[in-house]
Amino acid sequence: MTVHYYTSSSLDGFIATADHSLGWLLKQDFDEDGPMNYTEFMKDIGVLVMGSSTYEWLLAESESWPYEQPAFVLTSRELPVPTGSNIRFRQGNVRDLFDEIVTVANGKDAWVMGGGDLAGQFADENLLDEVWVQFAPATLGSGQPLLPRALDVELLEVAQNRGFMCGHYRVLKSEN
Please, are residues 82 and 53 in contact by the beta-carbon 8 Å criterion? Predict the structure, then answer.
C-alpha cells in the first residue's frame, strides 16, 4: 500500500485559509481531465484518512457524503455521520492505527486528505510515501500550511494543468 498526500496549495504554501476555507481554491481554473487529475488519482484509493477540520468542511460543503471508500477521521470529538457513509472515528498516534488502515484499504492505497499536520504525522512515523501538490496561481498570505515538517523528497513527475503547477514527489524515508 502507498500512502499519498494529495492536495492543492497556494503559491505561498497554504492549503486553506486560517478559518479552513477552500473558497479561494474552488474559484481557480483546473482541467478536471488534465494532468494529475483527481479522477485518475482516486482509481487506486481504497481508504481515506482525514482530520476533523477536513471532515467538517466536507459535511458543510456536500449535500451527501462524496466518497465510496471507507474513511478514518482522527478526532477526539463526537461528530455527525452522514447516511450511507463508512466513517470510522479514531484518536491517537497514526502508527497505532496503521495496521487497521492497511486492512481497510483492502490492497489499495491510502489518501491522507486535507491537513498538512496530519500528513506530517504520517511522515514523522515514516508512513508517508508520496506527496502530490497542485500549486494554484494564488497566494493567501497566511492560513493552514501545506506540510509543517521538514521532509526530503524526490521529484517524480511535473505537469501543468491550466494555471496550476503540479508536482508528484516520493518521500525519502528518514533513518530512525
Answer: no
Q: Which residues of 39-71 are buried (b: 16+ CB within 10 A; e: fewer)?
A: eeeeeebbbbbbbbbbbbbbeeeeeebebebbb
C-alpha cell of residue 56: 467538517
Q: Which three cell numbers stand for residue 61?
A: 460543503
Q: Model's pTM, two decimal places?
A: 0.95
pLDDT in tens, 59-103: 999 899 999 999 999 999 999 999 999 999 999 999 999 999 999
Q: Can you state the percent helix, strand and coil of the chain, rounding each to 5?
A: 25, 30, 45
CB atoms within 10 A of CB 22: 16
